[in-house]
Amino acid sequence: MRRSKHFRSLTLLAPLVLAACSGLPQGSPTPPASGTATVALTMSATPLAPPPGASILSFSVNVNSIALTPASGTAFSFPLNTGGGTFAVDLTRLQSDSALLGLSTLVPAGSYTSITVGLSNPALTYCLVTTGTPGCTAGSVTTIHPSVATPVITTSLTLTANQQTGLALNLDMSKAITVNLATQIPTVDLTATNVLTAVPLPRPASFAAGQLDFVEDITGTVTSVSGETVIVATATHGSYTATGSTATVFSPACTAGALSCAQVGQVASIDTALNADGTLSMLEYDPIDTSTTAHDWIEGVIVATPTSSSQFELVANEEVVAANTLTGNSLTLGEPVQVTLGSGATFSVDVKGLTVPVPQATAFAGASDTSVLLPGQTVSVRVTGFTAGSGTLPAQATVDVVDLRYSRVPGTVLSVAPPTTLTLQNLPPIFGLTINPIVQLSTGSPPNFAATNYDGVSSASGITAGSSQTYTIRALYFGPVAATQFSAAKVRAN
């Protein structure tokens, strides 16, 4: 199998709960100054309670500011990982993953009543689906913009001098989004009670003792390689520094099987764990594009079965801007893109060293047209030409690589057979599945074989079947004919 070169202003106040955990999250491990505490913030999302009745393709928002409001005195402005810029996220991706918002070692000790999170440009993209038919109905992809709101939720928090703690800000889509089950049309209310909460870190997970959270699928351009340490600059989240070890997995695209394959200028995805000492441990290094020639990439969800051998439509939920083909703000998260295959365009699969169904993976990697593409799949495409959308016309991209990557798929568990498989039910209707799909789990062994990571449970044995608990997987989707329809890099108990 050929492996890839691959791939309105709004302010919310969230409750902050006292975190008894310790650990210095990502950033400088310098001890906090006297009279201050160290606080790190990640961000996650809870999916719609199944059955969702709607296919949410993207739910994006910009985080502009974070402030801790004390019982008295001046609010503390919390630094974002982007410095002075906005931190753009697609919450559909955070159903399975965590984004590292930032770290401060200088939070004044004392009592706090809330966290204030300044958001802008919220946008939700969805589509209508005919039950049992894969993909969005023609012309139904729609983006709505929630109204400005300022919900205030108070609580109490006491930080002591030299305390080290981590929190995840979690946005609950089930509280924010209401779906009309008859029309499949969602509405959004970001003033709903407890739409945003703070969860102490660490949660139960499969990372090592002393680690606080998984921060995975950090996709961007490699800007520095020094020994076992790399820096990856993203388009919307800032830059991240991670260090490898004997526990690091190197994907099949890294033919050296070591970090010597990493080169400045590559487009890569790294999976990391947030350590208690403030560093990021690199769990996997995964080159998406081994070429050091700058290219831009768009990643998104395929919305319908292609009707042309050379064109398909996706909704963007991530981008890499290295060559400035995607200039300025010409493409936004949640925006539909009409993709055209260029002459000689190639296909690949980002297997990451996971266990995958070989026939389907081989067929996808050997494809030369859109016949292998399925609604609900996530692909990353390398852009050779781009025209921004205008009015009702979607953005247009010409591409020379199509790389199968990881869909975020919420549902409930019908059954589980640890450590190898689980069976999902109540998936979003865009998949159009008439079966309950089997999810392949991987045990892995570094440096060549990746393991499925678990969040909210410590292993596959902690997964419970039933309708009361929602899980979200980050997984390759191979379609209903595969022996295992999904291969999971991550399972999160929401």
Relevant terms:
494 residues, mainly beta, seven-stranded antiparallel β-sheet, six-stranded mixed β-sheet, 2% helix, disordered N terminus
How many β strands by DSSP?
30
Distance linking N and C termini: 34 Å
Q: Which descriptor suits the 3D outline?
A: globular
Largest sheet: 7 strands, antiparallel
Q: Averaging pLDDT over every residue, what do you get?
A: 89
> Helix amount, in percent?
under 10%
Structural class: mainly beta
Low-confidence stretches: 1-33
- The proportion of residues in beta strands is over 45%
Rg (C-alpha, Å): 21 Å
- Number of helices in the DSSP assignment: 2
Task: Explain the overall architecture.
- It is a single chain.
- The chain is mainly beta.
- Strands 1, 3, 4, 5, 7, 8 and 9 form a 7-stranded antiparallel beta sheet that branches.
- The N terminus is likely disordered.
